[in-house]
Amino acid sequence: YKGILLTESGVEKDNLERAKKEILNQLDCIKKGNFTEDELDDTKKYLVQAFEKIDDSLSALNGWYVSQAVSPKVYTPQEYIRHLNGVTRDEVIEAANDVTLDTIYTLTGKEGNK
Question: Which of 29, 77, 79, 113 is most buried as measured by Cβ atoms within 10 A of its Cβ?
């Protein structure tokens, strides 16, 4: 609802720059439409499965509807799944082109701790 996209990744400290470069490269690929219909379908299936699981947990349902409270329109998880399944390749590309890097936050442990 705030237009924030978060990317999380477990990365070894020595590979932080490499990971950042690859994450931004993958975003650039999406912006250019360099992804297959199979990748789009697989992503939708993954997200649909996650939304279907919301009904399995009272706390997940509570979290869903609390987050919906700040939305101009309240959707059930099933309505959201129908919307998600209707997302087109062009809409993904358009949304990706609105994404810009703002903040990189890195959590690291103390040296010597594993």
Answer: 77
Please give the full DSSP string across 51-65, using - where no structure is assigned. Answer: HHGGGG-HHHHHHHH
* Strand (E) or helix (H) holding 94: helix 89-96
pTM over cut 0.70: yes
Distance, in Å, from the CA atom of 90 to the CA atom of 31, rounded to the nearest integer, reads: 10
Closest of 90, 109, 103 to residue 6, by C-alpha? 103
What is the token pair recorded at 48? Answer: 């649909």
| 72 vs 86: CA distance, rounded Å | 20
Residue of 12, 7, 13 lying closest to 100 (CA atoms): 7
Token pair belonging to 89: 């390749």
Handedness of CA 4, 94, 24, 99 (dihedral sign): negative
Confidence of residue 68 (pLDDT cuts 50, 70, 90): confident
